[in-house]
Write a structure and sequence with these properties.
The complex is a heterodimer of chains A (262) and B (268). Chain A is 32% helix and 22% strand. Chain A has 262 residues and is an alpha/beta fold. Chain A is globular, with a radius of gyration of 19 Å. Chain B is mainly α and 268 residues long. Chain B has a domain of 187 residues: MetI-like fold (Orthogonal Bundle), CATH 1.10.3720.10. Helices cover 81% and strands 0% of the residues of chain B. Classes of the chains: A alpha/beta (262), B mainly alpha (268). At the A-B interface, strand 5 of A face helix 1, helix 8 and helix 9 of B. Bound molecules: adenosine-5'-diphosphate and magnesium ion. The site of adenosine-5'-diphosphate has 12 residues of chain A, from helix 1.
């Protein structure tokens, strides 16, 4: 492929965001993501992870603070491509058309779409409608659609959360493999501690109401074999779980508020 | 997947085409109806209900005289003219109301009010404005058909899937592109329902218009034969109207099935 950049950098400074109803989703969030880095945003639900991605994608603008993507304010469809939890495929378009829809300005878009279908193992289903695909296949299609834009930044919002355990693990491996061939900067949202530890170069732990950065944890063993038995993996896992548990138990809006015994 | 289930639940799935069993069952039911008709004509007084044979005879006579074709042609011209005009006005207007929220919120009350007023109430006014000719008839059909088309298109656009719209925005798609590829296709099931309701009302209004204005077309023949108690001819016209109704509904069903191919979970 032509000029392969290893991604673009992304910079948030003191970013705050409030919804119309007065809900402060994010308060003074600062975050830097380097070129080619794989950052996982981890936090309980409602801590502003999705909002943060939408800000990075340029879908919404911050109330205050500054966001720079590759040195300029973000604009939808320019530097970043997004993968959503609920796939968001157009049901009236075939697999192939779902991809070409996302890359209207590419001259050889059909050939490119076919290439990415092949890459995620969906060549046989080019002419199938999403209704005919399984959950895992739908998410692979959604991933192919994002990759086909050849973005320098990939924003992924709990992309594997609705898959079953096996499909989820296979997709994680698939993502790692795809990124080896086509490096990009990735911001990946999850509320699964294991998924965060398996994929991240760095984990950014967010705390809820209002969303803030609670802790940043570099992860050294990302993507080298299966690290799940590694003592460091187990230590971090325990640490993250403890922090998440505390956040959930002390969040008045959580179902588990006040249920901790110690 | 969610999207499919949602629209699928709200709007009946398009017919899959009648299988051989259904075709046979329908023919059987038709035979039963004709039998009942025949029995009724035997026992209900020959002057009120004509026999199937007498009706068939009348049909042949009306056909060979050319009256049936002329009336059918007149009626279809009025119906098609009014219905197509209703689609051409109703779809863009409904879409516009759904897109420009201020416009929609302003106009929808009036459209609902108008849709709830019996259209017959406007006929004297229309006759004063447009006379008794084809223009007045076509306008009466238009007025009846346009309301469900506007309202359903409006509802379909308002029902646009916000998540899909956001996905499209994230690819950098323009508003026009989002409109053409996301919002309108999503509104299609609603739109087809609107067209079907519009066609049904349009057909009724065709006959009503022909009864109230210059007496022509199938509605005109209905009045003439009904008033002179020529019941065999009268029955021919009633059956012709029923056939037109079936043809129009089936055509729209085919259109719907074609447009909603993507709902079938079997690729291609
Ligand atoms: N459209 C909205 N209007 C008002 N509040 C919202 C809206 N969307 C999300 N929120 C609130 O903003 C906060 C952050 O939401 P979100 O970014 O979706 O969190 P996460 O993705 O981490 O679960 C939550 O408290 C949520 O209830
Ligand atoms: Mg979320």
């Amino acid at each position: 492929m032509k000029d392969m950049r290893a991604g673009a950098h992304l910079d948030l400074r003191e970013v705050s965001f409030r919804f119309g109803g007065g809900v402060t989703a994010l308060e003074r969030v600062s975050l830097h993501v380097s070129e080619g880095e794989f950052v996982v945003l981890l936090g309980p639900s409602g801590c502003g992870k999705t909002t943060l991605l939408r800000l990075m994608a340029g879908l919404v603008t911050p109330e205050s603070g500054r966001i720079m993507v590759a040195g300029r304010p973000p604009r939808p469809g320019r530097d970043a491509a997004m993968v959503f939890q609920s796939f968001r495929l157009l049901p009236w378009k075939t697999a192939l058309q779902n991809i070409t829809f996302a890359i209207p300005h590419v001259p050889d878009r059909e050939a490119r779409a076919r290439r990415y279908l092949e890459l995620v193992g969906l060549s046989r289903f080019a002419q199938s409608y999403p209704a005919a695909l399984s959950g895992g296949m739908k998410q692979r299609l959604a991933l192919a659609r994002a990759l086909a834009a050849e973005p320098s930044i990939l924003l992924m919002d709990e992309p594997f959360a609705s898959l079953d355990a096996q499909a989820r693990e296979l997709m994680q491996q698939e993502l790692v493999r795809l990124l080896q061939d086509r490096p990009a900067t990735v911001v990946f949202v999850t509320h699964s501690v294991d998924e965060a530890l398996l994929l991240a170069d760095r984990i950014v732990l967010l705390s809820p109401r209002p969303g803030r950065v609670a802790e940043e944890i570099p992860v050294s063993f990302a993507r080298h074999g299966d690290p799940r038995g590694h003592p460091e993996f187990l230590r971090l896992r325990q640490h993250l779980w403890a922090r998440l548990r505390k956040m959930v138990l002390t969040d008045p809006q959580s179902d588990f508020f006040g249920r901790g015994r110690g | 997947m969610q999207q499919v289930a949602r629209t699928g639940a709200r709007v009946a799935r398009p017919g899959r085409g009648a299988g051989p069993v259904i075709v046979l069952a329908r023919l059987g039911f038709l035979t039963l109806l004709i039998l009942l008709w025949w029995l009724a004509s035997r026992h209900g007084g020959r002057n009120i209900i004509p026999t199937p044979a007498a009706t068939a005879e009348a049909a042949l006579r009306l056909w060979s005289e050319g009256r049936l074709q002329t009336a059918l042609g007149d009626s279809l011209r009025v119906f098609v003219g009014g219905f197509v005009a209703a689609a051409l006005v109703g779809i863009p207007l409904g879409a516009l109301m759904g897109t420009v929220r201020i416009l929609g919120r302003t106009l929808d009350v009036f459209v609902y009010a108008l849709a709830a007023t019996p259209r017959v109430a406007f006929i004297p006014l229309i006759i004063l404005l447009l006379g008794l000719g084809v223009e007045a008839k076509t306008f009466i059909v238009f007025l009846g058909a346009v309301m469900p088309i506007i309202l359903n298109t409006y509802a379909g656009v308002l029902d646009a899937d916000e998540e899909l719209v956001e996905m499209a925005r994230s690819t950098g798609a323009s508003s026009w592109r989002i409109y053409g590829h996301v919002i309108l296709p999503g509104a299609l099931p609603f739109l087809v329902v609107g067209l079907r309701l519009g066609a049904t009302i349009g057909l009724i209004n065709t006959v009503v218009a022909e009864l109230y204005t210059a007496v022509r077309g199938l509605g005109g023949l209905l009045a003439i034969y009904g008033n002179t108690f020529r019941m065999a001819e009268y029955f021919v016209i009633v059956l012709t109207l029923a056939l037109v109704g079936v043809a129009v509904t089936e055509a729209l069903r085919l259109l719907e099935a074609r447009l909603a191919r993507w709902r079938a979970p079997a690729g291609n």
